[in-house]
Design brief:
Length: 347
Amino acid sequence: MSTPTAFQRVMAAIELKEPDRVPVVPMVTYTTAQLIGIQFSEALYSAEKMANALVAGYKSAGYDGIYVGWESSFNLMAEAMGCKLQIQPNNIPFVKDQQIKEQSDLDKIKVADPEQDGRLPLHLKAINLVKEKIGENVPIFKYVPGPLTLTSILRGQDQLLMDLVRNPKLVYDILKPATESSKRFAVATVEHGTDIVVVADPIASSTLISPKTFDQFALSPIKEVLKAISEVGGIPSLHICGKTSPILERMVDAGTRIIELDYQVDLAFAKNKVGKKVCIEGNIDPVSVLLNGKPNDVKREARECLKKAAKGGGFMLSSGCEVPLNAPFENVKAMVSAAKKYGQYPI
């Protein structure tokens, strides 16, 4: 019997089956800059450098899927919608001036065109380039901004959290173009070759808002974006950082086929709660283990994740969130090595 391709292995997990082994897909993007001798900031405006670094990471570690991206998708989208970013040589860009300071500023918001606005076209080109370099046998993952988090970038996080209580109408008014922009970008990424589109909505976390507030402001927009992905043949995935145990079932009901879980969620709990409905991906601690730990620490944590969630299939080993900038790449390799050694089925 032939060894399945990485694409087949990942698809088996998404279909809640047991492949030959647990797929391993660390959320690796900009930390691959170190592999081709460039600073992170050098690829911000170069699809070629971004693609070369991402492919170098894949070839170096041998994981089962490539996340094509280079920075927070919500900052990328906010820039395309008119916000100004603070760019520093070797730090993640951030929005330095929020666009919506008062109700009248709503007129400033435009729905982003992914083929024309900001650096969205550059990211679409990077998808094409990675696809050309690696072929069809390795799935491409791509983050797009969750609507509530994008709204918080346009408005300012602290102000948004107050608006949820004091000015919900303004939140809904910003959510409309935010959701539409995310939908259009998600569809475009599929059209350019993405297989799995991940809606990233960290502000929707139970660490920051209650499940009731999630239902009121986050759930419906997330559903819209996930549905748009499915309608064009993409596989929808949902990533919400922090504590999501109280909303796991809501996340599944939103229409995702994969839930990416941060390290703060117990995988055994999640597997028991929703593991028969959706593929679970996660969740090695990205900072204390992947950034600050040693390869043996990574392997130990990987085995623990496998022990909690691999049995019965429907699981992909990954980091709990994006692998931090300048994390030792030996730690990424250790995660892959652990999956290949300890993730063989039957478990």
